[in-house]
Design goal:
It is a single chain. With 384 residues, this protein is an alpha/beta fold. It has 2 domains: 229 residues, FAD/NAD(P)-binding domain, CATH 3.50.50; 129 residues, FAD/NAD(P)-binding domain (3-Layer(bba) Sandwich), CATH 3.50.50.60. Helix content is 30%, strand content 26%. The chain has 9 helices and 19 strands. Strands 1, 2, 3, 4, 5, 6 and 19 form a 7-stranded mixed beta sheet that branches. It has a 5-stranded parallel beta sheet with strand order 8-15-9-10-11. Strands 12-13-14 form a 3-stranded antiparallel beta sheet, with no helix packed on it. Strand 12 and strand 13 form a beta hairpin. Helix 1 runs parallel beside helix 2 and helix 7 packs antiparallel against helix 8. The chain is globular and about 65 Å long. The chain starts with 18 loop residues before the first strand and ends with a helix. The N terminus is likely disordered.
Length: 384
């Protein structure tokens, strides 16, 4: 490719000479992105898959627990195993070109994606764009929340399962959802003491099977409890916890001190939708889906024609659901270009049925409520 060196101090760097045109360009190679790329390619479209890291898989890379779901979403496989399956399929597919170390810098009115790829600037011109950029971790605000030793659960998972580094010796987890409980179990597996799991809600959000595993290890889960303050000079040395009443207000006289060197925060995720906002895609605030969520139609296309979404960027959910959303978005994007293999609508129906099954139950009820609320807001504003 004809490129110039990427350098923010060089005024010429945006005058990129290289350009790549792709029928379908997918941003992100997590479960949704890999599934979208494979689905679009299977229909016959030529696909470019962009991943900012130097490896594929997104969050799957650090997920060592077994997945639920169905056979179609690799039930009983570990996240890392699923990543390897999808990655090998993508690498072997002649219709897919993969770009790792490809950081998307922006989307422009002429339909161009500016991408930093291996320290060079490259323009991609997709006919159809699928954004599967995932999510970011939310944080808590309390005194000294920024002390070294206070991490997001995803960061701790990366340290342990990707880099092979123990984050510390004694940990308290904040948040008893699936991520908090699973990472707590993985911390114990890595030889780290988990002193407690704190949950502000009166009820935990994790599946019983995950919560039972940590309780069998003797890890206490304190509900209606949160962090009041962190302590330490140069790094974290301890925290003060406090009980909450039914109005989520601190109860005076319930404060307790805990010594630790790591505080792990697992209080939810928010869609990583900045690229979509820049592209003019409409978003609405829906707490059940994680925050500001892009509006899309039943084919996963946003209000900007040709831009599709899938996975956590379109609403926080489990990886199994992200894979099905990615599959559907890839199929619809390819079909909009005129590619559709035999039994296309039958396979769409089967995928939609799988998604409906995954969204059953009390957890799925929250997702269904969020999707309904998003659609209502969109219709009121004429976005779909």
């Amino acid at each position: 490719m004809d490129v110039i060196p990427f350098n923010f101090h060089n005024p010429e760097y945006l005058r990129v000479k290289s350009a790549i045109r792709g029928e379908v360009v997918v941003v992100g190679s997590g479960p949704a992105g890999l599934s979208a790329a494979l689905a679009a390619a299977e229909e016959g479209a030529r696909v470019c898959l962009l991943e900012r890291d130097h490896f594929l898989g997104g969050q799957l890379v650090k997920q060592t627990h077994m997945f639920f779901g169905s056979e179609g979403q690799y039930a009983s496989h570990r996240g890392l195993e699923i990543k390897n399956i999808l990655e090998n399929q993508a690498k072997d597919h002649p219709q897919i070109t993969m770009f790792t170390g490809a950081n998307v810098l922006g989307y422009y009115e002429n339909g161009a994606l500016l991408v930093e790829h291996n320290r060079e600037a490259v323009r991609f011109y997709p006919e159809k764009l699928i954004v599967a950029s995932g999510a970011r971790e939310k944080v808590l605000n309390f005194p000294n929340w920024d002390l070294p030793g206070i991490y997001g659960a995803g960061a701790v998972q990366t340290l342990m399962n990707v880099d092979g580094v123990r984050p510390g010796k004694r940990v308290v987890m904040v948040g008893a959802g699936n991520i908090g409980v699973i990472v707590s179990y993985q911390l114990v597996q890595a030889g780290v003491e988990v002193a407690a799991i704190l949950e502000a809600s009166p009820l935990i959000g994790a599946y019983l099977v995950h919560a039972s595993k940590v309780r069998r290890l003797g890890i206490p889960i304190y509900t209606s409890t949160t962090v009041q303050e962190a302590h330490g000079d140069q790094c974290l040395e301890g925290i003060t916890t406090v009980r909450l009443d039914e109005d989520w207000s601190p109860r005076a006289g319930t404060e307790e001190e805990m010594d630790l060197d790591v505080l792990c925060i697992s209080v939810g995720l928010a869609p990583l939708a900045e690229l979509l906002v820049q592209a003019g895609c409409r978003t609405e605030y829906v707490p059940e889906l994680g925050g500001y969520t892009p509006v899309r139609d039943d084919k996963f296309e946003t209000n900007v024609p040709g831009i599709y979404v899938a996975g956590d960027v379109s609403g926080i959910e489990e990886a199994c659901s992200a894979m099905v959303e990615g599959k559907l978005a890839g199929m619809y994007a390819a079909a909009s270009l005129g590619y559709a293999q035999a039994d296309f609508w039958k396979r769409v129906h089967e995928a939609r049925r799988d998604l409906a099954v995954l969204r059953k139950g009390p957890v799925g009820e929250v997702i269904r409520k969020g999707q309904h609320k998003l659609n209502q807001k969109a219709r009121m504003k004429g976005a779909i």
